[in-house]
């Protein structure tokens, strides 16, 4: 006959069984962490990701591997996380493109921007800037609007693509000013900048980190920026709100996200480490060099931002009858 277990032994054994998953979770991470960048190398998402990954370094005891998976306006990289619920070893740099615009612009977006992700922290924001060719006869937004009104539909502005945030900010301006402003979509910012500088098109709406070298080099004239306050890198350029268009307020934003269903203690750890990195003077300096302001607020605040952006751009896309290429 097998010996009868004492009550204390039985309880001890049950407690050990219950604690086994917790002990397994405590080993995290037990392999390298994949950090997905859903845009090409050299862009804002890539630059910010590598700055933060380097700042965090080996604090987790495992390497952080930054992996570029661009395509479909950021949707391809985002879908990797959406298809990995509960995976504790994969994260990404989410953005206005992949989580604020794409899901309401493209009918076949393969993920839900809220349900399929754990949005952990806002990483950084920066404005877009309306800039014109040096020969274009406008030095203020009011003069730009007057030029467009004088030639309805003839004045064009370029952006890095149809349905991009910069395209939609141009549409916000057109609605607010009551003008017929024609959008010219390019396959990326480089070609749009080249054509604006050469005078093939008169104006461009571009993200500040990309436009800044050309503005500092005197190759383009900035007219206004899109956030509520002036960026430190362009202190003499008014915001659209200051120029008389308070409805034209928008930020480019990047955040830090993981798949849905990861343990709350891992969310807390990531939130702490990203927050510490964003407060590091060296990181702040490197962000400032490209016109990016570090983000604030944790999971609740960042999730609310994503939800609000989806609602905002859904209405702009509907009102402007904007469709994807």
Would you give an account of this structure?
With 325 residues, the chain is α/β, with parallel strands linked by helices. It is built from 11 helices and 11 strands. A 6-stranded mixed β-sheet has the order 2-1-3-10-4-11. Helix 2 links the parallel strand 1 and strand 2 (64-68). It starts with 6 loop residues before the first helix and ends in a 6-residue tail after the last helix.
Write a short abstract of this structure.
The chain is α/β, with parallel strands linked by helices. It has helices at 7-26, 44-56, 75-82, 96-105, 141-150, 165-177, 189-198, 208-216, 264-278, 281-289, 299-319, and strands at 33-37, 64-68, 90-95, 117-126, 128-132, 156-159, 182-185, 203-207, 221-225, 252-259, 293-294.
